C-alpha cells in the first residue's frame, strides 16, 4: 500500500528537520562557537533556503534545544534512571561518575553550546537549568539513603548538598570538555574526591 499524503508530509518534515539539526551539529563539531552560529550559517551548511528554515524552527535556539533533547534521549534519561543507585561505596561511585562523564564526551560541542548560551539567553538558561537539575532529586535521595546506612560526610541539607554537587560537576564538565586529555582525567579525579568526601567522609 502506498504511503498516504499525510505520511509523506511527515517523512519530508522529518528529513528537513534532520538536515537542519545535522547542520548545526556539524558546525558545532567543527569548532564554531555558539555565539558565531547564525540561521544563515545553519541553512548554508544544510544547503537549504533561509525561508524554509523558519517553517520548521522558530530560531537557532530551537535547533540547539532539539539537539539537547537528543542528548537527553540518548544519554541523560538512561543515566538518571540508575544515577547513584549502585553507588554503595566510593569505588562504585567513581565508576558511575566516570561512566556519566564518558557518555557526555560525544555530545561535548552541544553541551558546550548549551552552557555558553545559557549564560546570556533566558530561554537557553531555563532549558539548561531543567536539564542539569534532572540529577538533583536522585542525588538527594541517594544521599539520604547513604546517611541511613551510616555514611555521612557532612550535616548539610541533602537537597542543597545535591544541588551544589550537581552545579559543581556541571562547571567541571564544561572545563573538562575544553581541556581534554590528561587534564580531563585529573579533573574527573578531583571531582570524584569532592563527592567522596562530601558523601562518605574521610
Task: Explain how this protein is built.
This protein is mainly alpha-helical and 202 residues long. It has two domains: 1-57, Arc Repressor Mutant, subunit A; 66-200, Orthogonal Bundle (Tetracycline Repressor, domain 2). Helices cover 78% and strands 0% of the residues. The protein is built from ten helices and no strands. It has helices at residues 5-29, 39-46, 50-56, 60-82, 90-105, 108-118, 122-133, 136-148, 158-179, 181-200. It is elongated and about 60 Å long.
> From the alpha-carbon coordinates, what is the Rg to the nearest angstrom?
20 Å
Structural class by helix and strand composition: mainly alpha
Could you list the spans in which at least 5 consecutive residues all have pLDDT below 50? none
Largest sheet: none
- The CATH topology annotation of the largest domain reads as Tetracycline Repressor, domain 2
Average pLDDT works out at: 83
- Compressed to H and E, one letter per element, the order equals HHHHHHHHHH
